[in-house]
């Protein structure tokens, strides 16, 4: 679901205040809220497979890390692991990448709202592999969150406080070119607009203390990055060099200027500004391009290309030759509009970071590189991270909505979504107030008892009411509107202990021909196709801490039905993480299909204000056949809607809900005691 503000770096995770506005009329169910339009840019982006945050099958070689783009949805991660069930696996996009002292820094938006738990390295994967040390140090994981209110009060304060990666889009420490003997290209930097720093890492193997890479001037080219003008000759003219082939560019020279010692050892970092105690220091001051690139005769940045270099293993002839292999020098640059990007000062607005939980990883999770050959990769495989305690929400399920915490209760999720749209649009009437909260705890207890718990990622733009209405049946609930208020009702009768009721039932009301208005009674039988034997295949998500969770299926049929009957598929991957939950819903669908054969509607003058949706009612009608038999036909039904007209008449619609001779629901009894085969 998206709440994307124009020009924002991040899309919000829940609901668009414009597309998903709920009017007062909609609250009263006089006008249904309109779904988000499919032509919406954010919607099309959300629907793209590559934008999904749910784990997909991971190739042996891994998949490229997804990158975030402006307006992308930030999902809502709603889950709570309980009794080794639940939690979610998430594949977040990468919103920013940097490097600090040649250690990779990666920033991922995880969820709208504050995620309760902090991911750990043992439950974090890069591609198909558990995150691991590739430079001798295990990557570290940090979680960051700041409320929208806190960000609004201090918009220039970056909530990412490690000092290694920065909220400002233009402030970065980043890996650039790798200088290697086969050649490289150096792209000119904007010194006029940015404070800068530079560092070079020696890569290779063994002893490289007297090894350098050399390029002759005839294997060098420079050109103006703006105009494309070749400025090579201007450079050598400035140096007073008439024969470029006589000039040698030396890389890995120790030191860069001054008395030559030799080369740098593998792993050495040669930095322009030395960092005191490893802390971020002040960057170089800005300078004009006329000064920075004056030797090229241009006031624009200059790109440089080097080819056909050689490795000299005895640069200092007074010392022994190096015995190792010099792969090259990796360049790390800094660029920032301010001298200290950790403290940018006023004038910066980072409010887009509010109410979003971010994950920061510090460590070299790059693809494996061949340093001996001058290879230093900066690409990564897709990150997969396990989260066992999702966003903090008001705990209506516990009867204490003033207390917040992670939840796996669908009713808590629904209330949270409604609170989001309330916050996002001040002109919208109080959305939560028309919801009957008196039965939320009962509904949650019922869901806990039957093992129907929500653990999932809400990642697409949808209409709230449509979403809640569509998802509720997966939890054997129905989201209804009664007398101007929304409420949750169980799809099956439940006991005082909030279990599926498998005992004798008493109808809430009885209707006969004496109180059914003449001509109003209608009966509609289900089609033959809807009654045929089938098996139900339910897709859900496996969630185990020790491996990335993937989609699985459970196929359920009556044991008396052959395995070659048609299969109908149900997708519960958005919410279901347990086989028991998947099986329960499949059994409900099969039992309802088997025993409920038709629907009815009628009008009655009786006072029906005590009745509500899903109440069980009894219908008794006299039936005479052609041979004169006169009998009372009795059937039970479950109310699907009830409308009270101003003239005192109530219009009732209901579906067939048969009871057996002991007045026990046949559907409930089938679910509890029926014989099913599950694959």
Describe this structure in a few short sentences.
By secondary structure, this protein is an alpha+beta fold. The protein contains 10 helices and 36 strands.
Largest sheet: 6 strands, mixed
| Strand adjacency order, main sheet | 27-33-34-35-32-28
Structural class: alpha+beta
Oligomer: single chain
- Catalogue the unreliable spans: 1-39, 274-280, 424-429
Overall helicity: 10-25%
Number of strands: 36
Q: What percent of residues are in strands?
A: 25-35%
Give the end-to-end Cα distance, rounded to a whole number of Å: 33 Å
Mean pLDDT: 88
Principal-axis shape equals elongated
Enumerate how many helices there are, as a single number.
Answer: 10
Tell me what the structure shows.
The structure is a single chain. The protein has a domain at 54-69 and 81-110 and 118-387. It is built from 10 helices and 36 strands. Helix 9 (579-595) runs antiparallel to helix 10 (666-673). The chain is elongated. Residues 1-39, 274-280 and 424-429 have low confidence and may be disordered.
């Amino acid at each position: 679901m998206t709440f994307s503000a124009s020009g924002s770096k991040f899309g919000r995770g829940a609901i668009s205040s414009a597309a998903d506005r709920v009017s007062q009329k909609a609250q009263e169910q006089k006008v249904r809220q309109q779904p988000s339009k499919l032509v919406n840019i954010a919607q099309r982006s959300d629907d793209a497979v590559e934008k999904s945050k749910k784990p997909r099958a991971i190739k042996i070689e891994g998949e490229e890390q997804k990158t975030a783009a402006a307006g992308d949805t930030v999902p809502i991660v709603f889950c709570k692991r309980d009794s080794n069930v639940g939690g979610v696996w998430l594949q977040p996009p990468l919103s920013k990448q940097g490097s600090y002292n040649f250690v990779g820094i990666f920033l991922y938006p995880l969820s709208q709202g504050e995620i309760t738990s902090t991911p750990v390295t043992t439950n974090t994967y890069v591609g198909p592999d558990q995150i691991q040390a590739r430079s001798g140090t295990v990557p570290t994981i940090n979680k960051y969150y700041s409320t929208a209110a806190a960000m609004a009060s201090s918009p220039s304060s970056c909530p990412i406080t490690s000092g290694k990666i920065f909220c400002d889009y233009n402030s970065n420490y980043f890996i650039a070119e790798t200088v290697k003997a086969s050649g490289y290209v150096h792209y000119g930097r904007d010194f006029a607009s940015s404070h800068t720093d530079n560092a070079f890492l020696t890569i290779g193997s063994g002893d490289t203390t007297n090894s350098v890479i050399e390029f002759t001037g005839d294997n060098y080219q420079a050109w103006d990055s703006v105009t494309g003008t070749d400025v090579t000759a201007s450079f050598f003219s400035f140096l007073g060099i008439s024969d470029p082939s006589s000039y040698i560019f030396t890389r890995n020279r120790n030191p860069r200027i001054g008395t030559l010692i030799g080369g740098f050892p593998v792993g050495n970092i040669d930095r322009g500004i030395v960092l005191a105690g490893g802390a971020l220091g002040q960057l170089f001051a800005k300078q004009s391009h006329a000064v920075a690139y004056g030797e090229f005769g241009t006031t624009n940045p200059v790109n440089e290309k080097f080819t056909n270099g050689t490795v000299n293993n005895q640069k200092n002839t007074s010392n022994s030759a190096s015995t190792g292999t010099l792969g090259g020098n990796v360049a790390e640059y800094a660029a920032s509009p301010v001298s200290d990007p950790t403290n940018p000062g006023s004038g910066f607005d980072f409010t887009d970071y509010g109410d979003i939980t971010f994950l920061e990883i510090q460590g070299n999770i790059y693809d494996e590189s061949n340093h001996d050959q001058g290879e230093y990769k900066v690409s990564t495989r897709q990150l997969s991270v396990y989260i066992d305690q999702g966003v903090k929400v008001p705990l209506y399920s516990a009867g204490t909505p003033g207390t917040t915490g992670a939840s796996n209760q669908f009713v808590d999720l629904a209330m949270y979504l409604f609170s989001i749209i309330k916050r996002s649009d001040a002109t919208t009437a109080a959305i939560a107030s028309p919801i009957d909260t008196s039965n939320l705890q009962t509904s949650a207890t019922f869901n806990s008892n039957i093992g129907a718990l929500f653990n999932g990622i809400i990642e697409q733009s949808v209409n709230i009411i449509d979403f809640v209405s569509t998802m509720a049946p997966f939890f054997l609930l129905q989201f209804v509107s009664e007398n101007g208020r929304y409420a949750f009702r169980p799809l099956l009768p439940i006991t005082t202990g909030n279990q599926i009721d498998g005992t004798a039932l008493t109808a809430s009301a009885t209707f006969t021909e004496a109180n059914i208005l003449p001509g109003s009674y209608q009966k509609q039988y289900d089609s033959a196709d809807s009654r045929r034997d089938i098996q139900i295949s339910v897709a859900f998500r496996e969630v185990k801490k020790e491996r990335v969770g993937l989609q699985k299926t459970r196929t359920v049929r009556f044991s008396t039905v052959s395995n070659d009957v048609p299969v109908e598929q149900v997708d519960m991957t958005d919410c279901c993480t347990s086989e028991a939950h998947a099986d329960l819903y499949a059994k409900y669908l099969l039992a309802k299909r088997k025993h409920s054969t038709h629907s009815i509607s009628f009008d009655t003058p009786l006072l029906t204000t005590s009745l509500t949706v899903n109440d069980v009612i009894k219908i008794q009608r006299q039936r005479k056949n052609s041979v004169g038999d006169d009998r009372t036909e009795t059937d039970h039904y479950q109310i699907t809607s009830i409308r009270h007209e101003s003239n005192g008449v109530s219009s009732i619609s209901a579906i067939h809900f048969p009871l057996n001779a002991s007045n026990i629901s046949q559907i409930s009894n089938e679910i509890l005691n029926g014989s099913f085969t599950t694959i």
